Each structure stands twice: as C-alpha cells, then as structure tokens.
Amino acid sequence: MKLTEGNSEYNEGTDWERRYREGNAPWDHGKSVPAVAEALEFFGKPRKILVPGCGFGHDVAALSRGGHEVEGWDLAPTAVAQARELYAEAGVRFDVRNLLTAEVEEDAFDGVFEHTFLCAIGPDHWRTASDQFARLLKPGGLFFAILFTEMEEENPPPWGISADQVRELFSPTFEILGTRRPREAFSRRIGEETLWEMRLRG
Fold first, then answer.
1. Residues 6 or more apart from 131 whose CB is under 8 A from it?
2. Who has greater pLDDT, 91 or 190?
3. Span 171-194, mean pLDDT?
4. In this predicted structure, what is the pLDDT of residue 106?
5. Is the pTM above the cut of 0.90?
6. What CDD domains does UniProt report for this protein, alphabetically (predicted)?
C-alpha cells in the first residue's frame, strides 16, 4: 500500500471520545508501555517531549519520572480529564489537542514519543502527522516510535504500517538511527511491534 496525502481535516468526532466515555478502551493497560524504558535510554539527557494521542497519560507520567518535561495531547476530553486526575502530582501537562489540526508552534519540542497514534489515525493521515512532527521538533530533535509493523490487520483501527511505509514516510525529513524489536512488550502485542529511533534532519 502506497502512502497518500490524505485529508488533513481529521474528524475530531471519530468515536474516541465516545469510547472513552463508555469505558471501551481495550488498548489501555493501566500502565505505561514497557518500551518506555528504552525510550528513556534513547532520549538521554532531560528534554521537552510530546506524547500525541496520550490517552490516560501513563506514558507521559513514566517519561516525566525519567526526568523529562512532558506534554500529553489527546483529542478526547474524557481521556485528558482522566489523565489529569490520575497524574495530578506528576508535574506534567495534558491538553485537549488534535495534533493533525492544531496550530503548531515550530521548534517547540526536543523529542516526540509515538505510541498508538499512527495506528489510530490511519494511513490517510500519516503524511500530515509526519509533517507536524517535523514542525514541532527542533532541528536535531529526537523521535521514538513503537509501531505495529508485524500486525495482522483485521477491521482497523488499529492500522498496521510496514517497515517500507515507515521509511517512505519519515526518511525525507528524519534520519533513521535504528529499528529493532522491543526488549519487552505487552503480552498480546508480542511479535507485532518494532521500535524506531530517528533524528530530525537539519
């Protein structure tokens, strides 16, 4: 499947808010993804990091505990409200924002942590997301992604993305530093994910 330019007007009414209100969020494990540990190794020194599509904020809080200044964005107000309640003492910021349509301040972040964002928005919107990531990051900014490159796709979302699609999407603006299987994963995702470490060119 080739990537398309898609429609940047991503529908903020997509059922994410309804699903959070109804408690129908099976992607939430009640804790941060195990590969946060590898992201902390990759990011290294304290940085300002964005987590798009942060849901209940578990990854945001884990990155903050690792010494980083972290913002979590999600288009679902219910998810953001819950994240603020869960992690009120964590010193992190949660905003109701859709990365695809938000007015983005350029060079605002040193790093981006991507976990279950691209798989939620689908291929029509990947190009817009990649462009927004590049705008948000400072030159040389770091991008860490956990992507479903080995997933059998049935009735998405989540959408899988092949390694070739990842390279097509990111290599024009990002240097791909490495990719590998995570050392640890949630049980139902074992064998489906790969980690991607990148740096914004320029």
1. none
2. 91
3. 84
4. 85
5. no
6. AdoMet_MTases
Task: Report whether pLDDT(191) > 80.
Answer: no
Give the phi and the psi of residue 144 in degrees, each rounded to 5. Answer: -120, 125
> In which band, very low, low, confident or very high, does the pLDDT at 155 lie, cut at 50, 70 and 90?
low
Contact yes or no for 182/34 (Cβ under 8 A) = yes
Query: Are β-strands 137-147 and 69-74 bridged in parallel, bridged antiparallel, or unpaired?
Result: unpaired
- Write phi, then psi, for 163 (nearest 5 degrees): -60, -40
Mean pLDDT of 144-153: 80
Q: Which residues contact 187 (CB under 8 A, 6 or more apart)?
A: none
Q: Calculate the dihedral angle through the C-alpha atoms of 71, 74, 75, 80, rounding to the nearest 10 degrees.
A: -90
3-state secondary structure of 168: helix
* Residue 10 vs residues 45, 123, 124, 159: alpha-carbon distances, Å: 34, 11, 9, 15
Which residue type, as a one-letter code, is found at position 162?
S
Q: Report helix, strand or coil for 163.
A: helix
Q: Domains in the chain, please, with CATH? A: 29-200 (3.40.50.150)
Tell me the range of 46-55, 85-94, 146-155 where mean pLDDT is highest: 46-55
Amino acid at 190: I
Measure Cα distances from 196 to 20, 88, 109, 161, 174 in Å: 28, 30, 18, 12, 11
Amino acid at 192: E
201 Cβ contact partners less than 8 Å away, ≥ 6 residues apart: 139, 173, 174, 175
